Amino acid sequence: MRRGVRFVVPAGIDDPDQVSGGNVYDREVRDGLRRRGWAVDLVETSDGAGATAALSSVPDGSIALVDGLVADWAPEALETEEHRIRIVVLAHMIAAAFPDAPPDVVEAERRSLRAARAVVTTSRWTADELAARGLADPERTTVAVPGAHEATLGAGQGRNLLCVGVIAPHKGQDILLDALAQLPSGDWSCSIVGSADSFPRYARRIARKAARFDGRVRMIGVLDPETLAEEYRRSSLLVAPSRVESAGMAITDARAHGIPVIAAEVGGIPDTVAGGGAILVRPDDPGALARQLGAWMTSPALRDRLRREAALARRATPRWEDTVTAIEQALVRS
């Protein structure tokens, strides 16, 4: 018998101009389940009303996999349907982990997670945080870390820095640029890849900061998968200066390419870089980041060691099929 699931996600997950880690993850889950024979009824919505309609039309006893962002838009819908259908919430992040999260958003998250029969998180850190905050029972929580596709080993031998992620305060691009401003001019370059649409005021500030580097810092915007893969291949270091991060899909992609990483020691990042080829720094500290970047730029021995470690660590990079397997098991158990 063919299994089915209603997958409720934010609108635009296939829009090439709205690339985000959450959208990529949701697409991979949808496509992976379909390859395994699941009937995935994908419903995209941009508000709580759409989420309510999507859940109310799920047949009795059927499974609804709900992206956590959507779930937080309509907690009352999950509460209404929790005894009629099998709700699984896919929690990419924890709203309560953001220091400036509005109280109503935190409360909506608490209600939606409480109404779920099962919860899927994208990192062990997120699962542990949900348990510590009393938001999800560990026994009904499944960890499905982001995977990566098979990738070519990066060939970047220079000092080409790469930072990938939506241009947003929690991603910390301002921390990176403040760190770079503390370094002497040299033969380094930095490419910042990501959408500027979500936080336009912040993105404009980042663009102004980047312009001060006389072309050494490029704001590239959103790239298609093939062009982004090429950007990884030409880069010699990924920098992830996040203030909040559940796992770090850009880090996983860098690992798949065997590219070393300097990242903030926050959230699920330490787990993502386990295995070597990475340096962790204190979060929200441009000076600490500048010191490690300076050491990497000036020490050939350090660069060689990190490259060797990263090339070895890429063998243990999780694949998307592993992610889909974990989610499939959570759906079956729900």
UniProtKB/TrEMBL annotation:
Pfam families: Glycos_transf_1
Signal peptide region: none
Alphabetized SUPFAM superfamilies for the sequence: UDP-Glycosyltransferase/glycogen phosphorylase (SSF53756)
Keywords from the named record: Glycosyltransferase, Transferase
InterPro entries for this protein: Glyco_trans_1
Domain Glycosyl transferase family, chain residue ranges per copy: 159-310
GO molecular function: glycosyltransferase activity
EC number(s) per entry: 2.4.-.-
Keyword Transferase: yes
This protein's record includes keyword Glycosyltransferase: yes
Protein name stated in the entry: Glycosyltransferase family 4 protein
